[in-house]
């Protein structure tokens, strides 16, 4: 059992197109330590499961921001 797996939800500015989903899910999903990345288009959130021993929530938020989708808030469980 890996206890380092966390789930974070990042609130972003509104998404403008479906290609935003693929762009974020692909880039974030390929980061080392990220198990899954899911964009919730209608709620302007990105849900990410990740290994905090490999990558931090702040690093993931930075990746999303660099793609052009500023992170307005984040909650990590």
UniProtKB/TrEMBL annotation:
Domain HMA: 6-72
Pfam families per UniProt: HMA (PF00403)
Protein name: Heavy metal-associated domain-containing protein
């Amino acid at each position: 059992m890996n206890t380092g797996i966390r789930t974070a939800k990042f609130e972003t500015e509104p998404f403008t197109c479906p290609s935003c989903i693929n762009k974020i899910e692909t880039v974030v999903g390929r980061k080392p330590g990220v198990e899954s990345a899911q964009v919730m288009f209608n709620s302007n959130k990105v849900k990410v499961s990740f290994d905090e021993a490999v990558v931090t929530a702040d690093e993931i938020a930075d990746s999303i921001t660099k793609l052009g989708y500023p992170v307005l808030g984040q909650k990590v469980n």
